[in-house]
């Protein structure tokens, strides 16, 4: 499932326990992910899920759930 895969990626990259992540987990506030780390995460997600995240969409991805929803709705639509 996408949530589990995204959680594992975030957990591995940012040294957090995957089982502590929820769809409501805030990337910046809860995980202290800065803008550079956010871009790096997005690049990994693009590669893993074969999608392209538009620059204007990156700013809307504030929670783990936002990322999962974005992937779910865009995974088969390459920008």
Structural commentary:
With 79 residues, this protein is mainly alpha-helical. The chain has a single domain (2-74), classed as Non-ribosomal Peptide Synthetase Peptidyl Carrier Protein, Chain A (Orthogonal Bundle), CATH 1.10.1200.10. It is built from four helices and no strands. 18% of the residues are buried. The mean pLDDT is 93.
Salient structural properties:
79 residues; 4 helices; mainly alpha; Non-ribosomal Peptide Synthetase Peptidyl Carrier Protein, Chain A
Helix content: 40-55%
User: Could you give the order of the helices and strands?
Assistant: HHHH
- The average pLDDT score comes to 93
- In whole angstroms, the N-to-C terminal distance is 23 Å
Report on the biggest sheet. Answer: none
- The CATH class is identified as Mainly Alpha
**Poorly predicted tracts of residues:** none
Helical stretch count? 4
Which structural category do the helix and sheet elements fall into? mainly alpha
Overall form: globular
User: Could you state the oligomeric state of the chains shown?
Assistant: single chain
Q: If you consult CATH, what is the topology?
A: Non-ribosomal Peptide Synthetase Peptidyl Carrier Protein, Chain A
- DSSP, total strands: 0
Percentage beta strand = under 5%
Can you tell me the CATH architecture? Orthogonal Bundle
Q: Output the radius of gyration.
A: 11 Å
Total discrete domains = 1
CATH-wise, what's the superfamily?
ACP-like
């Amino acid at each position: 499932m996408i949530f589990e895969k995204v959680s594992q990626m975030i957990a591995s990259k940012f040294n957090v326990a995957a089982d502590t992540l929820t769809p409501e987990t805030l990337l910046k506030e809860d995980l202290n992910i800065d803008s550079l780390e956010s871009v790096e995460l997005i690049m990994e997600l693009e590669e893993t899920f074969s999608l392209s995240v538009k620059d204007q969409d990156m700013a809307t991805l504030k929670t783990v759930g936002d990322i999962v929803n974005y992937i779910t709705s865009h995974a088969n639509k390459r920008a």
